[in-house]
């Protein structure tokens, strides 16, 4: 984990999770406190999960220092080729003996820069530090490795009980660039990682984020989710639906079909999709993963639909379009000739998209279709159409 990246594998170098960094810092602090060792690096095991990294992780230790009766160790997080907001930040562990605990007991908590959970739905109970179960077990195991070395060294002495406090000095500020405020995690970042290392950003991680947000939303009692394709469409959706709580807004990105299916499985009362014309056109063609890598937008179906609906002027305009943005611009530029055909075409596309989203979502556990609403924005960030699957 400490070697420089191989140019031949640029873009694929794995990084460390915050959980692995916290485990390494905790082990280094325990080694200095209990065995007077000050290692330049430590080896920790990955979390005890089926998805963990296959081998031990050797992690550099940036510093170790005494603070009264305690020891603080620091590790600098390396996120590899998929750096997130925590890349390069300091993950610290403060360790001290606590005679009020049972011999050999290890108590782990979060301090400055580690968030606190305030809403149900996450794998950490409300009120506790936002250290997920897998990294919590990883930290415990790392510290117990140190305590295990004390038993043969001092067989007549009881193994000390330790308190470990994980801190991230920049955590409060860094959390503003994460989903934590929306998930009800306040005051800092979360300590995460089921694998021990992080791969460059993947579809799986985005989908997991969608699941987590929907879990929180379900537990807060709000029955409606607003799915957006990105930051701008979310911002516009918030302006359009100011009455909904912050947790109701989820950035689904290009995973429209996946997010709708997850919302239906959780028995949501309804879902709103905030999106632009290009994504709407893809949905209208039954494309549930709307990223450009899945295929460039084909506008020829729009021309065909317009002609079948008798929107001949709109069809002529669309035949010249190169992009969805261009299609809307052509319709607007030809407004005197197209007349009502432009809005009618948008409505036609929206209805086709809604029909497909109903199919993608499936039914809720109660056996009812998931009601879906479309908010269609144009490139001037104007709401051009609002259409629901429950409209007549």
- In the CATH hierarchy, the architecture of the largest domain is 2-Layer Sandwich
Briefly note the structural class of the backbone: alpha/beta
Q: Give the rounded overall mean pLDDT.
A: 86
CATH fold category name of the largest domain = CbiD-like
Q: Could you list some keywords that capture this structure?
A:
alpha/beta, 2 domains, five-stranded mixed β-sheet, CbiD-like
Describe this structure in words.
There is one protein chain. This protein has 392 residues and is α/β, with parallel strands linked by helices. It contains 13 helices and 18 strands. The strands form six sheets. The chain has a five-stranded mixed β-sheet, covered by helices on one side. The chain has a five-stranded mixed β-sheet with strand order 15-14-16-17-18, sandwiched between helices. Residues 1-10 and 291-295 have low confidence and may be disordered. α6 (231-240) links the parallel β14 (224-228) and β15. The protein folds into two domains: 7-198, CbiD-like, CATH 3.30.2110.10; 203-388, no CATH class. The chain has helices at residues 18-35, 133-153, 171-174, 180-183, 203-220, 231-240, 256-265, 277-284, 300-308, 312-318, 324-333, 335-338, 341-361; strands at residues 15-16, 41-44, 57-60, 63-67, 70-76, 90-97, 106-110, 113-114, 116-117, 162-167, 185-186, 188-189, 197-198, 224-228, 249-251, 270-276, 372-377, 383-388. α1 (18-35) packs parallel to α2 (133-153) and α5 (203-220) runs parallel beside α7 (256-265). 37% of the residues lie in helices and 20% in strands. The longest helix has 21 residues, at 133-153.
């Amino acid at each position: 984990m400490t070697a420089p990246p191989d140019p031949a594998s640029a873009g694929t170098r794995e990084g460390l999770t915050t959980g692995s960094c916290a485990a390494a810092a905790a082990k280094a602090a325990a080694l200095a406190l209990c065995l007077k060792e000050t290692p330049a690096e430590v080896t920790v095991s990955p979390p005890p999960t089926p998805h963990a990294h296959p081998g031990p992780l050797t992690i550099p230790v940036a510093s170790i220092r005494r603070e009264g009766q305690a020891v603080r160790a620091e590790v600098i997080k390396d996120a590899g080729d998929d750096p997130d907001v925590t890349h390069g930040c300091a993950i610290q562990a403060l360790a001290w003996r606590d005679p009020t605990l049972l011999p050999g007991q290890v108590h782990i908590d979060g301090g400055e820069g580690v968030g606190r959970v305030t809403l149900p739905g996450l794998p950490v109970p409300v009120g506790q530090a936002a250290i997920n179960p897998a990294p919590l077990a990883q930290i415990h195991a790392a510290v117990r490795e140190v305590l295990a070395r004390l038993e043969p060294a001092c067989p007549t002495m009881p193994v000390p009980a330790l308190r470990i406090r994980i801190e991230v000095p920049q955590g409060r500020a860094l959390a503003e660039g994460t989903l934590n405020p929306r998930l009800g995690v306040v005051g800092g970042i979360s300590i995460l990682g089921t694998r021990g290392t992080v791969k460059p950003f993947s579809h799986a991680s985005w989908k997991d984020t969608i699941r987590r947000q929907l879990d929180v939303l379900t537990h807060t009692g709000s029955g409606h989710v607003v799915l957006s394709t990105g930051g701008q469409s979310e911002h516009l959706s918030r302006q359009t639906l100011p009455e909904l709580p912050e947790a109701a807004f989820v950035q689904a990105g290009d995973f429209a079909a996946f997010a709708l299916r997850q919302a239906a499985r959780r028995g949501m009362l309804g879902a709103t999709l905030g999106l632009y014309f290009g994504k709407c056109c893809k949905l209208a063609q039954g494309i549930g993963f709307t990223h450009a890598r899945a295929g460039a937008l084909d506008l020829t179906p729009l021309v065909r639909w317009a002609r079948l609906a008798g929107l001949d002027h709109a069809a002529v305009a669309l035949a010249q379009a190169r992009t969805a943005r261009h299609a809307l611009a052509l319709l607007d530029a030809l407004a005197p000739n197209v007349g009502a055909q432009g809005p009618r075409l948008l409505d036609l596309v929206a209805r086709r998209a809604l029909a497909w989203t109903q199919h993608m979502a499936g039914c809720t556990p109660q056996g009812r279709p998931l009601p879906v609403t479309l908010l269609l924005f144009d490139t001037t960030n104007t709401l051009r159409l609002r259409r629901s699957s429950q409209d007549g």
